[in-house]
Each structure stands twice: as structure tokens, then as C-alpha cells.
Design goal:
The protein is mainly β. It is built from 3 helices and 27 strands. The strands form 7 sheets. Strands 1-2-3-4 form a 4-stranded antiparallel sheet, with no helix packed on it. The longest helix is centred in the first third of the chain and has 12 residues.
Length: 417
């Protein structure tokens, strides 16, 4: 049977394996396999950029990414923080300018949340303003190329007060008391305006926890990642079997997971099946899914994980990991990349574990199952992770990132917040 390429593989992007895919033939193949119209394909592929964009394949070993042409590894800028990556990643220093819509972010306002995707990042200010940087197609700009420093998002309607951000491979959402406002080349128009309290999206599908606590998913469904028992694409479906509802949802690659109100962690899609499956974790209030693993934060501040563990991303030496085992305690927030996991500790420090091929765990080993301190961080208030990168928000609007595309493997800071 012909393999099903991911949406960005269709765009002939650089993957972690640096493999090129012929654009026209792959696009036709993907469209036929998934039953998508050219319009739907265009919407999905907009997030992938030009055929030279880099993407991460759903499976395969991690190898070094292609180096940016204009990046000088380890070179600081004007004696300040290390130069950020120039490939359109978080804190990009290369290419393009935004259109005349966005303006500079407020200068005397505290950042209260951050969210990063593979090629962009956003920050939420206390007054509800949002500033983003990176790939212009992801940050509400009609201009081509990249915006290297944060600019204010002008698409949030007057009167909408955001309290949290969510970012993914195809855009960003601001969550507020009245729902979600989203922008970017999202995988479905369903995500543009939602009465939702949590949202998560990958390249081809998205899920949201609605104001009624039901979980709703839409988009590509080849592996049953929409959770309704089918494998056909859907505009939007409510996921059955999550009673009495969910608190949190997290999607990645071709699967989805939710933290049910009763504390169970339920997952569906690739590796799980087309309907929700109980992963054995109890007491969960938040969930973070990677490529093949899922970790949950409990109401007691503990972390438990289940699923893939080849890199130690589930926090143990067990294979498969024991979902009833406590990986860590004293945790305030949990985030996951493809094959790594990070925890914000209640004391304001950060610990990471799993794949370290790009320095995303910030240690000197290639992988580890032991939660490892990320040095140089203190007073951290929020974390966000994507693929092989993590960013932390600390005092004075300081956002520090580490992982893939990092100059000389060292952390860098986002300037201009």
C-alpha cells in the first residue's frame, strides 16, 4: 500500500531526514489518498511555505537539520543574546517584513503567556494584546517572508480579552472568556471562531474543548484522529466516549489526546484506534501529546506519561512506560515536543527529558529518561514547546528558547517584546 505523506512532506520540505519530495506528484498523491479538494489542499499546504521549507516527518530517526545559509553559529548580536535562527523559526532574524497592519507591541506591559509553533511564536500581554514573530503566513500578515521581531496582531476584535495562547503548525489561537479567536493558515474554517476553552492543532487536523466540555475535532482523519470511529475527513464531529467531558486537549501528528473531567487520559488516532482509548493515567487536569507519547499533569502537581519511550520521553526506562508511575512532582505546567517533554516546576525552574538530538533537553547526552535541569533559567512563569524546541517566559518579558536551529546549540532570546 502506498504510504501517506504528511501535508508538509507534500510541500517538498526539508524534513529532519533532509528528504525531498517531488511537489506536484506528492500533492496529487496526498489529495487522492485523503479525498481532499484542491482548495482544502491549498489551505493545508499554506502553512508549509514554499517547496524549500523545512518540515519534520512523522516517523524516522532524528538527524541534524540543514544549517541556515546566513546563520553564524554562536555569534552574538551586538554583545547581546545569541543570534536567533534564520530559518523562520521562533525568533527568526531573517527575511521579509510584515505588512502595514501590525504595529510594534506595547513597551510597558507584562507578557503573561507564550505559544510557539514550528515556524512562528506569539506572546500575550496583560492588557490582552498579542505580538507575534516568524513566518508571516502564521501571524496574521499578508506579506511574504518573515517578521524577525514581534509585531502586534491586528485581527483580534475590540473587546475580546485574551487570557491564554495556543500555537501549532498552522496558526495561533487566543483564548478568552467568550471563546477563541484564531489566525493563520488553519486546517479548517471551524477554527476561525470557536466557543472553546482549549484548542490544539496539527498540520491536518484540530481539536477543541468546547464551552460545553465536549471535544470537537475536524480535518484529516486517515488514522481516526477525529475520534468518531471513522477514517474519513470531516468538517467537524463531536468525539464520543468522553463523559462527562474534558478539561484539556492536545493533538500532534496524526493522533489526539484529552484529559477528561474525571481525570482519565483518553487518546485516539494513529497508534490508538479511531475511538478514545483509556491510557491508564488518573487524576489528569492537563495533557501534552508528542509524536507517540502523552504526558499529563495531575491536580496534585505530579506528572505521569504513557506511550512511546524510545528516547525516554515518557520519563522512565520502561517500555512501554507504566502510566501509574509518577515521573515528577511539584510541577506547575507540562509541555511536549515530538520526542521530548518539559515541566515547569512550582519553584520556577524547568526540567526536560527525552530526545536531545537538537539540544531540546539542554544536556550533553543524546537522550535521557531522567528529568534534567535546564541551566540558566529561573523565575520561569510559562513554557511552550514544538517539535524539537522549547521556550520559557521569565521576568521582564524575557523569552528564552533552546533546541533545533539554536546557534551552536546554545539558547537564544527573543528580542523586542
Amino acid at each position: 500500500m502506498m504510504a501517506k505523506p504528511s501535508p508538509c512532506a507534500v510541500a517538498a520540505g526539508w524534513g529532519r531526514s533532509s528528504r525531498h519530495v517531488p511537489y506536484a506528484s506528492a500533492m496529487k498523491t496526498f489529495s487522492v489518498l485523503h479525498g481532499l479538494s484542491l482548495t482544502a489542499m491549498a489551505m493545508l499546504l499554506a502553512a508549509c511555505g514554499s517547496p524549500s521549507s523545512r518540515v519534520v516527518p512523522e516517523e524516522g530517526p532524528a538527524t541534524s537539520p540543514p544549517e541556515s545559509a546566513d546563520a553564524t553559529p554562536g555569534a552574538p548580536v551586538d554583545g547581546g543574546p545569541d543570534r536567533p535562527p534564520s530559518d523562520g523559526g521562533v525568533g527568526s532574524a531573517g527575511g521579509g517584513t510584515a505588512d502595514s497592519g501590525p504595529t510594534a507591541p506595547p513597551s510597558s506591559n507584562a507578557v503573561v503567556d507564550i505559544a510557539i509553533g514550528p515556524s512562528h511564536g506569539c506572546a500575550l500581554y496583560r492588557n490582552g494584546d498579542v505580538a507575534c514573530w516568524g513566518d508571516n503566513t502564521m501571524i496574521g500578515s499578508s506579506a511574504s517572508g518573515q517578521t524577525p521581531t514581534p509585531v502586534r496582531v491586528s485581527t483580534i476584535p475590540p473587546g475580546f480579552l485574551a487570557s491564554a495562547l495556543r500555537a501549532g503548525a498552522t496558526g495561533t489561537c487566543a483564548l478568552g472568556a467568550t471563546g477563541a479567536v484564531c489566525w493563520g493558515p488553519l486546517p479548517s474554517p471551524e477554527l476561525a471562531s470557536l466557543a472553546a476553552k482549549d484548542v490544539s492543532f496539527s498540520f491536518g487536523h484540530a481539536c477543541a474543548v468546547m464551552s460545553t466540555n465536549t471535544v470537537r475535532c475536524w480535518g484529516i482523519n486517515s488514522f481516526g484522529q477525529l475520534g468518531d470511529g471513522t477514517t474519513e475527513p470531516r468538517p467537524a464531529v463531536d468525539v464520543p466516549g468522553i463523559a462527562p467531558g474534558a478539561d484539556s486537549v492536545s493533538v500532534a501528528q496524526s493522533a489526539s489526546c484529552a484529559a477528561a473531567i474525571d481525570g482519565r487520559v483518553l487518546c485516539w488516532g494513529q497508534g490508538y484506534g479511531p475511538t478514545p482509548r483509556d491510557e491508564g493515567i488518573r487524576g489528569a487536569i492537563r495533557v501534552a501529546r508528542g509524536r507517540g507519547h502523552v504526558c499529563a499533569l495531575t491536580g496534585a502537581g505530579a506528572v505521569a506519561c504513557a506511550g512511546a519511550n524510545a528516547f525516554g520521553q515518557s520519563g522512565s526506562l520502561d517500555s512501554p512506560p507504566n502510566p501509574t508511575r509518577t515521573v515528577l512532582t511539584g510541577v506547575a505546567q507540562i509541555v511536549a515536543g515530538l520526542d521530548h517533554t518539559c515541566a515547569l516546576m512550582a519553584a520556577g525552574d524547568v526540567k526536560c527529558w527525552g530526545d536531545n538530538s537538537y539540544g531540546q533537553v539542554s544536556t550533553n547526552v543524546t537522550k535521557t529518561s531522567t528529568p534534567t535541569d535546564v541551566t540558566g533559567l529561573s523565575g520561569v512563569t510559562r513554557l511552550s514547546a514544538t517539535y524539537s524546541r522549547t521556550c520559557a517566559l521569565s521576568g521582564s518579558n524575557r523569552v528564552t528558547c533552546w533546541g533545533d536551529s539554536s546557534p551552536a546549540g546554545r539558547p537564544w532570546e527573543i528580542v523586542g517584546l
